[in-house]
Write a structure and sequence with these properties.
Blueprint: E1 7-22, E2 25-39, E3 47-52, H1 59-66, E4 74-79, E5 84-85, E6 92-94, H2 106-115, H3 120-133, H4 149-163, E7 167-171, H5 179-195, E8 200-204, H6 208-214, E9 217-220, E10 242-244, H7 260-274
Parallel strand pairs: 3-8, 3-9, 6-7, 7-8
Antiparallel strand pairs: 1-2, 1-4, 4-5, 9-10
Helix pairs in contact: 2-3, 2-4, 6-7
Bound molecules: adenosine-5'-triphosphate and magnesium ion.
GO molecular function, one term: ATP binding
Protein name: ATP-binding cassette domain-containing protein
Organism: Hymenobacter mellowenesis
Length: 276
């Protein structure tokens, strides 16, 4: 176990008392959580949050709230160094099913995204850089239907990075990918978070090992019990279910999966998810 030197600076994402009911059913209750810019000496170190919870508990709903696509019933989401209330388009969001325009080539899909943030000449340059970086340059003229699942996934991540400001939500980025593709998406996530100090990726996943290995922070969405032991309606991310992996000496290790402390911690997390 190696602990790295690190420090925290300004907030990048702040959730304050976020609750929502859908069809009169409480889904999320009083969520308070924050992501701070983590810094390491002589490095550009972005942030990676692993976000877990049982199926159907409300992870995708919280993603839509964090992306500004639906308003919470109560509470606020603030993003960026300016900590502005989130509006659609500020946060990149690769949804569980990620949409690309079927009638545009990969290159043109990315250009549409880039032009939302950059002037036309700049946008083209950025698109070329991302195509190269994500190994997609040979496929630039293909239409989405001709891309493999992994290529689509990389294209969707590139698309969201091109048009958003630093913060990007990946909902189930590893599902349906083979082991080699999973390695590739992992590599891209690491690359994204070393490209800019402020880049922050929130990964929703049921793949606890892969995601925990990438993360420096974890959130576990679950139900709480009241004093009488009854389940409180609406899921939340309680303070004891917000883990700081940097503090635990489990962040930013090349081969953390091989460490016994990591395996123990993953078992602990799995048990917490089972019991939540
Ligand atoms: N638009 C909606 N209207 C009503 N209920 C909804 C709506 N969207 C989601 N829900 C409900 O909110 C709950 C949480 O759904 P959500 O999709 O966030 O789960 P999840 O944690 O992402 O699950 P999974 O891991 O299976 O993707 C579910 O009970 C779902 O039926
Ligand atoms: Mg979901």
């Amino acid at each position: 176990m190696t602990a790295h030197t690190y420090a925290y600076r300004d907030p990048i994402l702040t959730l304050t008392n976020v609750s929502i009911s859908l069809n009169n059913e409480p889904i999320l209750r009083d969520i308070n959580a924050q992501v701070l810019d983590v810094t390491r000496p002589n490095m550009r170190q972005g942030q990676v949050v692993g976000f877990y919870g049982r199926s159907g508990i409300g992870k995708s709903v919280l993603c839509r709230i964090m992306a500004g696509l639906i308003a919470p019933g109560t509470g606020t989401v603030e993003v960026g160094l300016a900590q502005q209330p989130v509006l659609p388009g500020m946060v990149g969001f690769v949804q569980q099913r990620y949409p690309l325009f079927d009638h545009r080539t990969l290159h043109d899909n990315l250009l549409v995204a880039a032009q939302r943030k950059h002037a036309p000449a700049d946008a083209r340059q950025h698109v070329d850089a991302y195509l190269e970086r994500f190994g997609l340059a040979p496929h630039r003229r293909k239409y989405p239907a001709l891309l493999s699942g992994g290529q689509r996934q990389r294209a969707a991540i590139a698309q969201q990075l091109l048009c958003s400001d630093h913060l990007i939500l990946l909902d189930e980025p590893f599902s349906g990918l083979d082991v080699a593709m999973i390695d590739e998406v992992k590599r891209i996530i690491v690359e994204v978070t070393t490209m800019d100090e402020l880049n922050t990726v929130i990964i929703v996943s049921h793949d606890i090992v892969t995601t925990t290995a990438l993360a420096d922070r974890l959130w576990l969405l679950g139900y709480e019990h009241d004093a009488a032991g009854a389940l409180v309606p609406g899921a939340t991310i309680s303070p004891q279910h917000q883990y700081n992996l940097a503090e635990m000496g489990l962040a930013w290790h090349e081969n953390v999966e091989a460490e016994p402390e990591f395996a123990q911690f993953v078992e602990h997390i799995k048990n917490e998810i089972r019991g939540s």
